[in-house]
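Researcher: We plan to redesign the surface later, but first we want a full-length starting point. Tokens attached.
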């Protein structure tokens, strides 16, 4: 592994390190997609004795569940793409690999450790084996085919296993991606899209299709290989890196908001009808990739996106905490507070809204009290002051008004 991070050149017409606020403003929508699928679960994934879905009208409950079925998969895929893009864009040339890794580990582990501990105390300690505690703690649980280990202690944290792999491999991946000639970036981006389809084909035809998953028409092993096994998610991350290089090289075409939104709607519609496992990633990877690159390009041009406002950026900043708290607030809080009760549609909407606001509050507290202080305290190595020669004359200190 190189000692310093490889450099990636910018087109001279592009101001380097533009703060891409609109990409931060996109994050809440992805986190909300994940929340929808969690609050609409037909049964409690922790103790399958009753529904999480608060809607008592079964037609409404089933309709919402079917409509939002691909939402959670799409939200996770968006975050993986965005990670590759942002890490490449925000690269600090000449930065030491150890410094980069320090920042990345401090970014994810404090939030993870706090939610891991809370989940363990509230519910996971009563049912999860010690092996699940440890594998989840060190973010290696998604490498196991055992369903009891994959979701670990705090179920949403499974995706951090993939993110950790991305972070560890990023210096090597960047070394390769930075050496791709600009004229071939589009070709490699297309290859990454094709690889996600290839993962689906391997899943469908080469991985055993029994026993069946109770919710998805795949076996548990197929679900693991296609969705939670971290190496299979690298193609999304690397595509994000390639898209960042395309934007940085000035090769991204200007695409308006209407075509981007239309493509996103078409991608969601395709995910509703494309069979699993192709609706997990392949159906939406092009729309998401186009949206990320187009919004970044708009920020570079200084165009108004309505995603770069203070409120949207705030939501984006707390979205990681919001995501990490969903398993605790929804999967534990819903049964703990309401039991297995379901409600009329208007009341159920209010219940879902209440759990959304509770999760947002928990995410904000996690961001404010854990994530930000940890980043300030540990993301940078403390500088050691130079040792003074005892024989050297002391300098006169002057008072300063600050």
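Model: Full-length starting sequence:
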């Amino acid at each position: 592994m190189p000692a310093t991070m490889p450099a990636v050149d910018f087109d001279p017409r592009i101001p380097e390190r533009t703060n891409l606020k609109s990409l931060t403003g996109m994050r809440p929508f992805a986190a909300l997609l994940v929340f929808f699928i969690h609050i609409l679960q037909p049964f409690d994934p922790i103790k399958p004795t009753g529904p999480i879905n608060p809607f008592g009208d079964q037609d409404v409950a089933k309709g919402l569940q079917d409509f939002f079925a691909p939402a959670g998969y799409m939200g996770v895929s968006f975050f993986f793409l965005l990670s590759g893009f942002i890490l490449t864009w925000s690269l600090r040339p000449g930065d030491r690999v150890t410094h980069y890794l320090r920042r990345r580990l401090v970014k994810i582990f404090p939030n993870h450790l706090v939610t891991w501990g809370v989940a363990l105390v509230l519910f996971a300690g009563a049912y999860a084996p010690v092996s699940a505690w440890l594998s989840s703690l060190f973010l290696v649980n998604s490498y196991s085919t055992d369903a009891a280990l994959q979701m670990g202690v705090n179920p949403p944290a499974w995706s951090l296993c993939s993110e950790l792999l991305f972070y560890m491999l990023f210096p090597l991946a960047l070394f390769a991606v930075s050496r791709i000639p600009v004229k071939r970036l589009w070709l490699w981006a297309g290859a990454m899209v094709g690889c996600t389809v290839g993962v689906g084909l391997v899943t469908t035809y080469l991985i055993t299709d029994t026993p069946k998953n109770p919710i998805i028409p795949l076996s548990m092993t197929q679900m693991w290989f296609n969705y939670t096994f971290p190496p299979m998610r690298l193609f999304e991350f690397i595509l994000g890196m390639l898209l960042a290089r395309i934007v940085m090289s000035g090769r991204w075409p200007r695409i308006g908001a209407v075509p981007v939104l239309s493509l996103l709607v078409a991608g969601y519609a395709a995910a509703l009808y494309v069979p699993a496992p192709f609706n997990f990633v392949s159906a939406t990877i092009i729309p998401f990739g186009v949206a990320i690159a187009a919004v970044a390009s708009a920020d570079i041009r200084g165009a108004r996106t309505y995603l770069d406002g203070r409120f949207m950026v705030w939501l984006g900043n707390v979205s990681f905490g919001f995501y990490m708290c969903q398993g605790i607030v929804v999967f534990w809080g819903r049964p703990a507070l309401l039991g297995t009760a379901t409600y009329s549609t208007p009341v159920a909407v209010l219940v879902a809204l209440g759990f959304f606001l509770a999760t947002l509050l928990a995410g904000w507290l996690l961001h404010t009290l854990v994530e930000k202080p940890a980043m300030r305290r540990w993301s940078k190595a403390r500088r050691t002051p130079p040792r003074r020669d005892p024989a050297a004359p002391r300098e006169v200190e002057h008072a300063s008004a600050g």
